[in-house]
Design goal:
- By secondary structure, the protein is mainly alpha-helical.
- The protein has one helix and no strands.
- The chain starts with 13 loop residues before the first helix and ends in an 18-residue tail after the last helix.
Length: 73
């Protein structure tokens, strides 16, 4: 009879599992770094946009109309 290898069915060899795990970890690392960079870029764009809106008085919302209390409006 043949010796059993301990991996029944179509299980990949251990070297393949280790390489697959390294690829998954590398992919997660790249995804995390990319997400972090994109969040920093987005936050910078928003803060620059807010600063430019605050510096331009013409872009501010119009003032509310003043009520004339003397005429009872």
């Amino acid at each position: 009879m043949t010796e059993l290898s301990g991996s029944p069915g179509f299980a990949p060899p251990l070297a393949g599992k280790k390489l697959s795990r390294r690829r998954a970890v590398a992919f997660e690392l790249v995804a995390t770094v990319t997400l972090t960079i994109s969040l920093v870029v987005a936050a910078t764009a928003v803060s620059l946009g807010n600063r430019s809106l605050l510096e331009r008085p013409s872009a501010a919302a119009p003032a509310a109309p003043q009520l004339d209390h003397a005429q009872g409006r």
